[in-house]
User: What shape does this take?
Amino acid sequence: MNKASEFIILGIITVVVAIAPVMPVIHISAFITRFLIGVMIYAIMAEGWNVIGGYTGYPSFGNVVFFGLGAYVTALSMIDFHIGFLISLILAAFAGALFAVIIGIPVLRLKGHYFAIATLGIGEIMMAITLNVPFTGEGVGLSLPIASSSLLFYYTSLIALAAFIIFLKLILSGRLGYGIIAVREDEDAARMMGINTVIVKIKAFAISGFFTAIAGGIYAYWSTFIDPPTVYDPIISVKMIIMAVFGGAGTILGPVVGAFIIMFLSDFLSTHFTLLHTFFFGGLIVLTAIFLPKGLIDLFSQKKIGWNYFIKNIKKYRV
Amino acid sequence: MLKIAKLSAGYADTQVLWDIDLYIKKGETVALIGSNGAGKSTLLESVIGLVKPKSGSILFDGKAVFGENINIPTRERVKIGMSLAPQGRHLFPDMTVEENIALGAFVEKDRLKIKEELEKMYELFPRVYERKNHPAGKLSGGEQQMVAIARALMSKPKLLMIDELSLGLAPVIVDVLIEIIHDISKSGTSLLVVEQDVQVALSVAKRAYVLETGRIVMEGKSEKLLNNPQIQSAYLGI
Assistant: This one.
């Protein structure tokens, strides 16, 4: 990305971040607040997927497992142990990271399709376990206390997202970041450089699990009710991937931009074209994959955008 | 420096290397010659630890890196001074040339030292310096080979192994690379160079091994091998 466009994007973000916190206070509308909370929760998840799928090159199809786990840990910690929301969120985050380490040790040995399928399976396993273990409320689900104000969710998700972006930026300019990208670019060469690729992959997966679990925790308290089919829904994994790839996988801001636009379009299309919205939505994703394989954010790094840019993209990624 | 004894290695059910004995003295440059599928790359990968041998032993700098119940991981072998510029270069294509080279010093944690080493590489490879901000995947074959060698040198190896030094490169570039190999050797680094082109191999190394279908079939001084009728007919077409 060139200097000027980076400057523009940073400028936009600064403005958004500066204005965003006061938006709910000045009562823009409950609808917009609600919409933005949803965007930020998904942005955290898309960014979480981006760490393992975009930067490390391991396309997880089961990241929803961290979301569900985070939701359940938060709910159980608040209901059964009467622990406060924020501390419960932190517990959920560490549970997500720990779970990523445990499942990462076997599945991160797999590559490509095998890794994708294995991660898909883990989400299903967790859903089945949660449905059958008594203390999780089984299939009935869990009801959480109702928060006094939706502003709590607005600010927690904003802070979590901002913290994630800053954390990621720091990681990427350090040893771990280079290790992560080296694994994606050429894992064998990474080993030859003396990189402990196993540890690097596990750390990346743990970061992914940590933040995705926070998103799950915020969602649980926000929606006040969770059950296994909702929080372990594999469609959530697919959404994370679409948002990250649509915005630009392997870039810091891509998944955030992707989450915003996909959420907006999905809302807009489903209200205006109730029956046809999946058609437009699906079509849009197909078109993006063909014309913008590097994601929307890549447009900002181009000096000139013309037909040539799209034609080049088509040629570059076809067989 | 390096002593390999009775080494056998392979992948799953196929054995590739049989009873390999090979040594390299300190500061020596040794060539490994052989046709496609002879097992040259497998041998280098066994030495650096990317392939786990079936039996035998590898001693490096007086330390056993592979043997009975011993199998030191690659990263530890890099730390004690082994390095490999692999076949096909294996660069990180989307990273810049500079990032590629700097990653060679991953085991070094001191950023200043990495910078110092990087400057040395740019002195050794002025062409690479001109391309330092380009993505490595966009470079020509010769430039990529230079980056691969520079990257392998970043960990300050005592033994540098280069797999297929000249494969697919223009003769002019090969001459430049040979000069660079001589420079590296002069600085005291031991080298093991895998090469299919016998003339190139024997012009960089004083001593060479010939590998055929997984076994060392010949070993000796370069000039002696060049005059060997078997070598002449098998590799030089004379």
In short: The mean pLDDT of chain A is 88. DSSP finds 14 helices and two strands in chain A.
